[in-house]
Amino acid sequence: MTKVYPNAPATATATATAAWEKPKSSLVSDGNSVVLTVWKKSLLFNCDGFTVFDAKGNLVFRVDNYYAGSKGEIVLMDASGKSLLTIRRKRLSLADNWVVFEGETAVNPLFSVKKHVNLLNTQSIAHVSSGGSGSSSPRNKLYEIEGSYRQRCCGVYDDKRRRVAEIKRKEAVGGVALGTDVFRLIIHPEIDDPAVAMAFVILLDQMFAS
C-alpha cells in the first residue's frame, strides 16, 4: 500500500489585501511555491476530515470535524490542533455562500467564497471576495477559481489573472494513481499563507463533492 503520510504520528492530538493581515500558520511561503499533499481522511478514529502534509511528510494541517454538506462550521487546525480558520455557511443565502474567520471567532470575516452558477462561463466554479459580503463585483473580488474539483484539476487566479494556487491529482512512485482522496495542493508565492489556500480546498469539497 502506498504510504501517504510518511512522518505523521498514528494519532494527532490570509492575505491578498491589507485587510487580511492576520496571524498566519507556521507554514509560510518564503518566495517559493509550497507543495502539499492533501488526504481526505482524519487521523482521528471514526471521524471524517482532511490531513495535510508538506513535502517532507510532516503534518501541517488537519480538519477533524468535517463532513460533506455540513450545516455547521468547519475548523482548519495546524498540526498541534490550534485553530487557524473557521469556515461557516452564510445564513439566509440562496446561493452556496461561505464566510471564513480567523481562529474560532465569529466577527469580522476575512473573506467569503461563493459557488459560481453562471452557465455561460463553465470554467469558473467559485469566486472569493473580501469581507463577508459574497459580492462578485470587481471591486470586492480577490480570486477566481476555475476547473473541475471533482477531477482534482483546479486553478486559483488573482485579480491580475495570475495563477496563485493549483489542485492536481497525485501519483505514487511508478505512476500508480492514488484516486481523488489524495491530491496535491500547490501554493505559489502570491498567497503568503497556505492556510488560506487549504480553506479554498475545504470549500470546494463542500460545494462539489459527490
Q: What are the secondary-structure elements, in order, as H or E? A: EEEEEEEEEEEEH
Total count of strands? 12
State the domain count: 1
Largest sheet: 12 strands, antiparallel, barrel
Helix content: under 10%
The total count of helices amounts to 1
Strand order of the largest sheet: 1-2-3-4-5-6-7-8-9-10-11-12
**β-sheet strand percentage:** 25-35%
Q: What spatial form do the alpha-carbon principal axes imply?
A: globular
* CATH fold node name: Porin
Return the CATH class: Mainly Beta
CATH fourth-tier homologous superfamily: LURP1-related
CATH architecture, by name, is Beta Barrel
- Low-pLDDT stretches are 8-23
Q: Distance N terminus to C terminus?
A: 25 Å
Structural class: mainly beta
Name the average pLDDT. 81
What Rg is obtained from the alpha carbons, in whole angstroms? 16 Å
